[in-house]
Structures are given as C-alpha cells and as structure tokens.
Amino acid sequence: MNFKKILEHQKIHASVPCRVDLGGTLDISTFYLPMNHMSPSTFNIALDLRTVVWLSPWQKGYVKVSSRGFEAAVFKKDEAPFNHPMGLMFAVAKYFDAHGVHIHIESASPPKSALGGSSAAAVAIIAAFFKALGNPIDPKQIAWLAHYTEASVAGVPCGMQDQLAAAFGGVNQWTWKMGKGSPEFEQNPVFETNQDIEQFNLNILIAYCGIPHVSKEINQQWVKSFVCGETRLIFEKIADLTKNFSKAVKNKNFKAAAEFMNQETKLRLEMTPDVLDNTGKKLFEKAANCDCGARFTGAGGGGCLWAVGEAWDIQHLRSVWQEILEPVEAAKILDTKIETKGIIIHKP
C-alpha cells in the first residue's frame, strides 16, 4: 500500500515508553509453558524515556528507516532484508505492505541500553500505521502484533514484556499462560493510584554502564540450558523470587524487595557470569552494601542496571554509583521517571 498520499496530508507521530524489569526470560514461551503449574510472571516498570516515531511521505515503491545510532537505510518494498540491523522495522512495514513511507525513530534512551528499545520502536511504528489507516489504537492487539513480528524475524525465542510495557505503561506484574487457542497474558497493576507510582520514583535508580549490550548470546545460553534440563530448578526459583519481589513492592516493603532482587541477580550470575560487565558488577556490589537491590535490565551483558530500596538508601546509592560511573565513557545515572502512559498518538 502506498502511504505517500496519506502522509502528504498528515504526518503521523506516535511514542511509547521503554522499561526496566525483573523476571525477564519467563515471558518466553519456551519457559512459561513448561512452568505453567507455577503461573510464571515478569515485573516491569515503564520509563518516560520515550521512543518516538514519525511517518512521513517518501518515494513510491520504497521504504526508508532512520534511527539515531544506526545508518539510515532505503530499500524497495519487496527487497528489504529482515536480518538488517533495522530489519524488525522493515518487517513491521512489510506487514502493512507499506511503501512511499519514511519511518523515522528517535529514542530518549541510550542506543542498545537493554531497555527494550527495539521492541518499543516496533510498537510505536505499528501504532503509527494503525493511525494512518484509521484503525482504533488497541494496545493489546498492537503488542501481540509487535511480539509475533519480532519473533518471526529475530532468529531466537522472544518474550512479550517489552511490547507490553511500551503499549500499556505503568508498573505491572505480567502473568504468562496458555489460553484456549493461543498464549495469553494477565496484567496485574502493582499500585492502585498514580500517587503511589509517583512516590515509587524515590525508591528506584537507573544507570547506564556505557557499553552497548548484545542480548542474543546471553538469551541463547539461558534457553539452551533450560531446554537441556540443566537450569529448570534455577528458573523455578527465579519465578518464585519474581512473585515475592512484586508482592514486596506492592506492600512497599523495599528492603525485602531489594533482597529478592539481589537473589535473582545472583542466580543469573551463576548461570551466565557475563550478564554483568565489570562496571555492572561494581554497581551491584555497592548496591548491596547500601542495603539496595540491583539488577541488569533485559538480558544484560552491558547496557543498564537498576536499583530498588528505601528512599534514603537509594539517595545514598546515587552518589556512590555516580562516583563509579564518572570515569567510564558515556556512563551515567539516567534522568528518568515512571511513565504511566503507554502508546500516545501525538496531535500534528
């Protein structure tokens, strides 16, 4: 479908949040189906470091994708490679048989920071195409479409939590299960009011370690060890810790939440020591010394760490982490807050 004429009349502008998480990997069907008896779940927080997408007119028969941190690419609509660094974005465009469109992506989060940026971009692009076509913005439908598109081209098993944080926003515990004919999720908001969410900002801290991450290798190790039967019991412990962490946060028992988070991180380190780089290991150790919990985001291997704890402990940890990050190129404490909104279609 040629979107050029549609977009000449109205440029489409959509945005979604990124996320930090605990209990990731459990959102992959390889894990949650064999663990169905445990009702596995993932905890995540949407952040106001939003990924913004613009759809604008381009040459008929071609699709252009540009994004900060990547070289812009243009392909004929039937020749775009899905194994390209921005292949997911071209795959999304192909779902709509789109051409005559320039997809421009701007993310407020650092590139390859393990905050779910590529999945968030796919959600934003789908929402933008829905708007261009006059379709209703259904967060659930858009999240599933983004998930299945990514799973079809990634070459590795993919989870669902990144798309849900982007589509819905907020602080949620997502429970994974099988429905009558397809996988399903259950959304469990952790807090009842926006005031509670606003207050929770004082109990978290997010740092960028300055090293872009590559999640595929670590994820592949987790999948392989689970499929081989080597780490099933470890992931059952992770499932329990995720539930306990979510409950502790809900009850505002942040010291207990910190302990559950550190236990989860230690289990991941046992399986994959590279899940934390050298800077990440220093941040993790200092967090524990400050009575806080710390964990990599996504599949780790560089990117971001986030911490949870009592407000005064987090305030102390901030200065400790800043001292560690100062000599590391591009590393920093991220200036961000919890985002309660998911997909936003911006007015022209």
Automatic annotation (TrEMBL):
Record GO biological process: galactose metabolic process
Domain GHMP kinase N-terminal: 91-170
GO molecular function annotations of the record: ATP binding; galactokinase activity
Record's GO cellular component terms: cytosol
Organism: Desulfobacula phenolica
Top-level taxonomic group: Bacteria
Pfam families from the UniProt entry: GHMP_kinases_N (PF00288)
Alphabetically ordered keywords of this record: ATP-binding, Kinase, Nucleotide-binding, Transferase
Name listed for the protein in its UniProt record: D-glycero-alpha-D-manno-heptose-7-phosphate kinase
Matching Gene3D superfamilies: 3.30.230.120
